[in-house]
């Protein structure tokens, strides 16, 4: 059994554990997205989505088999990394299933979606720590909390802007369907700026200089997202309605890239 992943991680993880842990998590996330594509085919086609299953490029039966094969691979790989990693991976796959599965469909309601995304984000950072066994520093914890909230309060809401028509047709009850784009845009804008400003304040108050640049990236992205969301119009193209979510994703990736460039003390 690889040291550092059966219980609390050691400071120096074997490179093989980091590589396998990365593959395990990639497979569990891929399961979530692929299974979601299978169950979302009606909504995706109604919304004009270009996802492979909705386009017909990947047959539903094949996509379903691949998704479950990925889940099996993820669990088998996680088991070899210890019981804690196995439990974390099982939770991630269970969340992915519950998010999309008919009869449960946590994707249908925004509060449930936020809960799933926040839990998945927290599990992701914890799994990364288990597999990589990096020192648990204050700036890593603060960044993980902030970006988990970014995913839950911003991404989980902004993703629905472009799909309200098809979502409503298929019984979704997310905030964009219930309250309209304008109200939801205000909510997501406030959430985005709050996360960005909160991260910057934490970096300053806790004397964490490693977080100043990442926090600046999040706050800049939050302001850009707010402008895009609040200036959207009902007649906009799907691409334009999708812009806030794209800004969310770009900000998330850019923040992590900047954070990775910071020295770990």
From TrEMBL:
It is a multi-pass membrane protein. Gene3D superfamilies: UbiA prenyltransferase. InterPro entries: Prenyltransferase_related, UbiA_prenyltransferase, UbiA_sf. Its main location: membrane. The chain crosses the membrane at residues 12-35, 66-99, 111-130, 136-158, 179-206, 212-232. Keywords: Membrane, Transmembrane, Transmembrane helix. The keyword Transmembrane applies. PANTHER family: CHLOROPHYLL SYNTHASE, CHLOROPHYLL SYNTHASE, CHLOROPLASTIC. This is UbiA family prenyltransferase.
